[in-house]
Design goal:
This protein is of the alpha+beta class and 307 residues long. It has 3 domains: 90 residues, Beta Complex (RNA Polymerase Alpha Subunit, Chain A, domain 2), CATH 2.170.120; 85 residues, Beta Complex (RNA Polymerase Alpha Subunit, Chain A, domain 2); 90 residues, RNA Polymerase Alpha Subunit, Chain A, domain 2 (Beta Complex). Helices cover 17% and strands 47% of the residues. It is built from 6 helices and 23 strands.
Length: 307
């Protein structure tokens, strides 16, 4: 008897919910969807030279049951042929949008954002531009990059309206951040989106390669300091004439380095303008090698007339 009472309560509750839902869904509601915007049949040799949205926001009103059909189905697509665009500088309007959408009886299109859209075509051109990486690699402690970053391809062909491509000299990749890197990196990075313009690319992405090795430090002793641009009538004696530097790089690169791979210089003009008796030195390192420190930081000097 008790079990039968439970069934009656459950059935009554479900019936009440269904009845309420049926009545509620007969009322009018509003809903907003994003409708893909598609422009097709662009004449050969022409391209869109005005910004185009990827989607248009549409607001509908109708009975709950019928709006549910709009939400459950794929969003209606706004498809236009470039050969049927309004002549001159006339934009597509809300009426044009409404004419492209098939709706169930009782469902109305109330609003579109944007509510009008000006589309202009212009001559299409191609242009080869370098790819600019928009990525950053952070390395685990004790590791670092060896050599330059490889990008393939390092340039792409972009196709679009002449008026749009006129101001484009490079093209970026999408933003990427690689963290805690401790092994050589090989990754594919998509090119940045062209929105809101219609631009085609010869490739959708580029591949980057970064060689990563454990890093270490090495002391380079006895590096001679050269003085540049010394007048013929002058002689400069440095104290000390040689310095010691500490450099950081990949282990394999460090093992092959010697003092002959570095250059330490100071310019005579700096000595002539100095009043402290000591000047800085500028150390040039091979590519991929970081200067950690130099000892001493400054060298003293004596300037005398050449005999």
């Amino acid at each position: 008897m008790q079990r039968r009472s439970i069934y009656i309560v459950i059935f009554s509750t479900l019936f009440g919910v269904l009845a309420w839902f049926s009545v509620t869904m007969r009322e009018d509601y509003e809903t907003t969807v994003l409708s893909p915007f598609v422009l097709k049949e662009i004449p050969a040799g022409m391209a869109v030279q005005t910004p185009l949205p990827r989607t248009v926001q549409l607001r509908f009103r109708g009975e709950g049951w019928r709006l549910a059909g709009v939400l459950l189905a794929h969003a209606p697509r706004l498809v236009f042929s470039a050969t049927m665009l309004p002549a001159g500088h006339k934009p597509l309007t809300f009426k044009d949008f409404a004419d492209r959408i098939s709706l169930a009886p009782g469902v109305r299109l109330l609003e579109a954002k944007p509510d009008s859209l000006l589309i202009e075509l212009g001559p299409a051109v191609r242009k080869r531009v370098p790819v600019v990486l928009d990525c950053l690699a952070g390395f685990r402690e004790g590791y670092g990059q060896v050599g330059p970053t490889s990008v393939a391809p390092d340039s792409v062909t972009v196709t679009g309206a002449e008026s749009v491509l006129r101001t484009i000299d490079t093209w970026k990749t999408e933003k990427r951040l690689f963290e805690n890197v401790r092994a050589s990196l090989d990754a594919e990075i998509p090119l940045a989106s062209a929105d809101p313009y219609e631009i085609a690319f010869s490739v959708p992405s580029v591949r980057i390669a970064i060689s990563v090795e454990p890093f270490a430090e090495k002391i380079i002793a006895g590096l001679p300091v050269q003085v540049t641009a010394v007048p013929a009538s002058r002689e400069v004696i440095l104290i000390p004439p040689r310095i010691e530097i500490v450099v950081r790089a990949g282990i394999r690169q460090l093992s092959a380095l010697s003092a002959g791979d570095f250059r330490a210089v100071t310019d005579y003009a700096g000595i002539a303008a100095d009043s402290t008796g000591a000047v800085d030195t500028d150390v040039s390192c091979p590519a991929g090698v970081q200067l950690v420190t130099k000892r001493p930081e400054h060298v003293q000097y004596i300037v005398r007339k050449r005999l």
